[in-house]
Amino acid sequence: MAARLAILPAFGLLLSACAGPGPTDTPGSTGSPGVAAASPGSSAASAATTSGWTRAANIEQPAGFMTAQTGVVVTRGCAPCHPAVDTLMTGVTAGPAGLVTVGWILQDFSGASWRSSDGSNWAFTGGFPAQTLLAAVAANDQRYVAVGRDGAGATAWTSTDGAAWHKVSSPAFAGSPLRLTSITAWHGGFVAGGYVGTEFFSADAAMWVSPDGLTWRRALDSADFHGARVWGVAAGGPGLVAVGQTGPADDLGPAAVWTSADGLSWTRVPDGPVFQAGRMRAIASIPSIGLVAVGEDLAGDTGIVWLSKDGRTWTRSPADPIFGRSGIQVRIYTVTAGPNGAIAAGTLDSGVQYGEAAVWTSSDGLAWKRAPDGPEFLDNEVTAATRWNDRVVAVGDRGAPDAYQATAWLSPSGVGR
């Protein structure tokens, strides 16, 4: 959900009148190993739901977080429904120490991380310095790597246990403005994507590659990167495939796809009708299908799924009413491999408030089903998801725009059957 970083200016305006204290913890200073303690910000998971998905029973929040459910509301002085600390989850992965999710705290735009051993109980494992916005996380068999932005520049952090995090120092991240939006594990190491520029106006796509998450090289610049942003990257095709968008932020052009054999030299797939009037937000390699990219049309009212076997030739899944609803904005932020095909997720809303999380499943990438509506999805949005055993874990937030609360969901076993 890397693409959510593009809406930072709106968050800044929302919070400018509602400033409050952020957490004072340092990375790895709070949270118990793998098990979340009860917190005032917890939300109970349903014993049974129509969709089969359950909302996480317990998500530990940073110090100062209170909600109306406790009977005690800490406000910032502008509305009684505002908590002291607003949190969002933007990336999630399974790795050597279990499930790890990253995100950020709105009050000072500082990074945040959580860890879980069961997908239902999440321990807050520490805050990061101010202006460290974490967008995505991936893992190999040795460590987790989270990426995002550090002020005006790019940043990466590593952890072997999901609790103690260490900032990567690399000349590959030198210069500004730079943004890291996405990351994937590849060949025992990692590949990350992003862009040179800010959330405003035009930008140029950029890629980075690492053999271990600790040392990084920036990919060669080329004309194929100019005037575009990378929002997602996955293993597939000739080696790697990245997706994103062309055009300035206020006048988006066609969706864009790049391929690479080594992570250092990238070639953009030629424009074609399949990419017109579409916004690609995420990509995943699905064993039973191939490459699946997701997003929506530029009007924002119809979800789109793109399919490819080789990363170079793309088609769209057939149009389906389940990807749209009259008068409702659709954003498909994430796609991941599930136990029985592809799982895509995002949100439907009619403005900045009262969004509804949405989950779609497909065994072949062509025919899709949407999970039934239910209270577990109401006033929520899903921004990232990952497979975990025979389930899928999704993360995001709920309560916009007055009380952002980091939120997670656990799918039913064998989701997508």
Structural notes for this entry:
The protein has 417 residues and is an all-beta fold. The chain has one helix and 29 strands. It has one helix spanning 8-15, and strands at residues 54-55, 58-59, 87-95, 98-105, 110-116, 121-127, 132-139, 144-150, 153-159, 166-167, 178-186, 189-196, 204-210, 217-218, 228-236, 239-246, 255-260, 267-268, 278-286, 290-297, 303-308, 315-316, 329-338, 341-349, 356-362, 369-370, 380-388, 391-398, 405-410.
Which structural category do the helix and sheet elements fall into?
Answer: mainly beta
Total count of helical runs of at least 4 residues: 1
Largest beta-sheet details: 5 strands, mixed
Mean pLDDT across all residues, rounded? 86
Number of strands: 29
Give the assembly state of these chains.
single chain
Q: Encode the helix/strand succession as letters.
A: HEEEEEEEEEEEEEEEEEEEEEEEEEEEEE
The strands making up the biggest β-sheet line up spatially as: 2-6-5-4-3
The helix content is under 10%
* Radius of gyration, CA atoms, in whole angstroms: 19 Å
Shape category: globular
Uncertain runs are 9-46, 67-80
Strand content: 35-45%
- In angstroms, what separates the terminal alpha carbons? 25 Å
In a nutshell, what does this entry contain?
The chain is mainly β and 417 residues long.
Keywords:
1 helix, globular, 4-stranded antiparallel beta sheet, mainly beta, about 425 residues
